[in-house]
Design goal:
By secondary structure, the protein is mainly alpha-helical. The protein is about 90% helix and about 0% strand.
């Protein structure tokens, strides 16, 4: 990859990392809101697993972004 493509890949992966972390935080907030309201249809285990998956995917995007940046230098 050229320097421009590496920069674009790094930027996109950084943006995706933050978006995935935001989704994970929103899933945790949804779980808390459902617990406070006492929703009968709440599935907290699934929501928390999805939050963990999103957080892990965000972490992975951060690692890949760092590697794309290292290739650019």
């Amino acid at each position: 990859m050229g320097p421009f493509a590496s920069a674009v890949a790094s930027g996109c992966l950084d943006a995706l990392r933050w978006l995935l972390w935001l989704v994970a935080a929103l899933l945790i907030a949804l779980t808390a809101a459902q617990a406070l309201r006492g929703d009968a249809d709440a599935q907290p285990a699934q929501l928390l697993v999805m939050a963990a998956v999103c957080a892990a995917a965000g972490w992975l995007c951060g690692c890949l972004s760092g590697k794309a940046l290292a290739k650019r230098r």
